[in-house]
Design a protein that fits this description.
Helix 6 (179-194) links the parallel strand 7 (167-171) and strand 8. Helices cover 37% and strands 28% of the residues. The relative contact order is 0.17. It has helices at 48-55, 78-88, 104-115, 119-132, 149-161, 179-194, 206-209, 237-251, and strands spanning 4-17, 20-33, 37-42, 63-68, 71-72, 89-93, 167-171, 198-202, 214-219, 222-228. By secondary structure, it is an alpha/beta fold. It has a single domain (4-251), classed as Rossmann fold (3-Layer(aba) Sandwich), CATH 3.40.50.300. It is built from eight helices and ten strands. It has a six-stranded mixed β-sheet, with helices on both faces. The structure holds adenosine-5'-triphosphate (ATP). It holds the Pfam family ABC_tran. Keywords: ATP-binding, Nucleotide-binding, Transport. Belongs to the ABC transporter superfamily.
Length: 253
């Protein structure tokens, strides 16, 4: 039985503007398990990113509980939440936000040294991870502007993994990439998940969603469907693709 990393109880998120309240997440009970590659899908505006931000402590829930390995996020103040995110969460976004004036290696170290002050260990870890995602030594001194989109996003993934996050949160990480670059990024995510990294990823894209082993579908502010898909297996992809398409049709996607 896998360990629970995140558990929500009656999680609600409401936005208010101009006196109008928008209930985006309504009483969600979700359990995310260690080692899973969970995908969040749903139509545009259904609250996928809002859910990801709430689960990761980037934004506060309006009501309800979020427990991260048994610890309530609701009880943390903003400073404590920032420390929690730095120590336990990794983030990958569509926009990569590497620092333009720093080399590839320094971009990774800038995050890593915030947590592990031992430079020698952090440099070793950064280099191992860069090799793992296919960024070899001749690229370590390059600046972000000298990288392809896929390479930059793979550096972004290394930066997100440098502090050994319990969960990697990804919001449309391939949304701005061409097909070949997307595949290179997805292959990296599959690889790190196979090595045990828990991942939660928001996507609109079926091909991207197939990398997950569980699909949560958001509709009208609730989890409308929850599909166990089995781990990614290229050989079984036609069947998995069909299963996902049928599920999404049932969801009204
Ligand atoms: N900070 C905010 N203030 C007010 N409303 C917000 C805020 N963030 C999100 N919303 C609203 O909440 C709803 C859900 O937004 P969210 O970005 O979570 O949807 P999404 O499913 O990720 O959409 P998309 O697929 O288009 O990226 C939208 O109607 C959005 O306008």
């Amino acid at each position: 039985m896998s360990k629970t990393i995140i558990k929500t109880e009656k999680l609600c998120k409401t936005f208010s503007s101009g006196g109008i309240q928008q209930h985006v997440l309504k009483n969600l009970d979700i359990e995310l398990l260690e080692g899973d590659f969970t995908i969040i899908m749903g139509s545009s505006g259904s609250g996928k990113s809002t859910l990801l931000y709430a689960l990761s402590g980037m934004d506060k829930a309006t009501l309800g509980e979020i427990e991260f390995e048994g610890k309530s996020l609701a009880k943390l103040n903003n400073d404590q939440l920032a420390i929690f995110r730095r120590n336990h969460c990794g983030f990958v976004f569509q926009q990569i936000y590497l620092l333009d004036n720093m080399s590839v290696l320094d971009n990774v170290l800038a995050s890593g040294l915030l947590v592990n002050k031992n430079r020698r260990e952090t440099v070793k870890k950064a280099k191992e991870l860069l090799v793992k995602v296919g960024i070899d030594e001749k690229s370590w001194s390059k600046f972000p502007s000298q990288l392809s989109g896929g390479e930059a996003q793979r550096v972004g993934i290394v930066r997100a993994l440098i502090n050994n996050p319990r969960i990697l949160f990804a919001d449309e990480p391939t949304g701005a990439l061409n097909s070949a670059s997307s595949d290179s990024v997805l292959d990296v995510l599959t690889k790190v998940n196979r090595d045990g990294q828990s991942i939660v990823m928001v996507t609109h894209d079926i091909k991207t969603a197939l990398r997950g082993n569980r699909i949560l579908y958001l509709r009208d502010g609730v989890i409308y469907g929850d599909l166990p898909l089995g781990g990614y297996d290229e050989q079984k992809n036609p069947e998995r693709h069909e299963e996902l398409k049928v599920f999404l049709a049932e969801m009204g996607w």
